[in-house]
Amino acid sequence: MILHFIRHGDTLQSVANQINLENPLYIKEFHNQKCAREDYILDDLVVGKKLFLPDNQTIQKYNAKNDAPFKSPEQNPVINFTPEEFNSRYKINITESSADKRATFKKNSFSYNISLKWIENELNEHVFHLSKSDFSNINDTKIGDLAIACIQSINPIEIRTNFKGEMVRINLLEETAKNFPRIKEKLLDQFPDQYAKIYIEEFEFAVLNSEVFQKKMKEDWFIKTYFANIRNEFKNGKSNVRLYLDGKNSLTDIQQTGLISENYDIILTQSFAGNQPENSAVFTGNYTLSQQQGTIKSLNIYYSYSEYNIIYSIDFQVNEIV
Questions:
Q1: What residues are paired with 157 via a beta bridge?
Q2: In this predicted model, what pLDDT tens digit does every residue of 120-131 receive, in sequence order?
Q3: What pLDDT, in 10s, does the model give residues 23-74?
């Protein structure tokens, strides 16, 4: 038995974490068995009072019961991915901002819709078609209109995933690649100035070069979050995910907790795994998934980081259009 004096900020959970006790309710049970009646714990801990804690051997016996809240099936959901016949639309809202030490603040918000349709199972992969439409931008510009026209000109693109819904590769449809000379000609007619011509030629190189196209698509916020490896196995209430968060094509380790809600959706909550990155980055992620199909109903990602004394942030929201 260990004697502990309750300090400011102590809770049953925080003390349990300190002694590696999985279920904090056993602190109350153990203490009340050992203490005088006037020292019973009824609800909250009282600062300054004595608290009797179990020794390591007793802690191991308690942990062997496997009844800690985070070990419950509700907090360790099994997420299957069965998207056959899936066909849905999503509303995407993105807010990007930057601020420097001189309090110079820039903000840009835009939205668009995505259509996502399951096509078939082929070679142990799920095949989806993805299209973007209905763009709106509070900072409308000619170059913005050109970018939108280019994006829509290659609708739909093909996305292949494994059977856990994680992206394997992204392709142009064969028909789109074959007809790209006509697509390019139409874009040049629509945007005839010399700067647009340079942009369209760069776009042509990016979409027809498979390696470049794959890299660009991995930077797309919808693709890299929707088709992430979020359906990994849960253990002790947690699972691990790897996401592409920046434009450096590098993966970041993310930890997520899970919960089956009252209406049987699966709720995932994400944060950085382990130590916070050196660039003072902040990350939070929230997903709602259909328990039946494992498809995503909504997601919200907030990510901010510092680079060259400038703080960049993005708030990315996806909601299924019902």
A1: 130, 172
A2: 999 999 999 999
A3: 999 999 999 999 999 899 988 899 999 999 999 999 999 999 888 888 888 9
**Alpha-carbon 279 to chain mean position:** 19
What backbone torsions phi and psi does residue 165 show, to the nearest 5 degrees? 85, 10
Domains detected in the chain = 2-67 (no CATH), 87-320 (2.30.230)
Helix 142-153 with 180-190: angle, nearest 10 deg = 160
Residues in CB range of 295: below 8 A, 6 or more apart:
81, 83, 86, 88, 165, 289
Are the C-beta atoms of 271 and 287 separated by less than 8 Å?
no
Structure tokens at 200: 């369209």
Q: Can you list the pairs that 200-203 forms with residues at least 24 positions away whose Cβ atoms lie under 8 Å?
A: 200/146, 200/150, 203/150
CA distance 283 to 305: 9
Q: What's the predicted TM-score (pTM) here?
A: 0.81
| Residue 127 phi, psi dihedral angles, 5° rounding | -110, 125
Length of the chain measured in residues: 322
Contact 293, 274 (CB under 8 A): no
Phi, psi of 221 (to 5 degrees): -65, -35
| Strand partners of residue 284 | 302
What string of DSSP letters covers 138-161? TT--HHHHHHHHHHHHTPSEEEEE
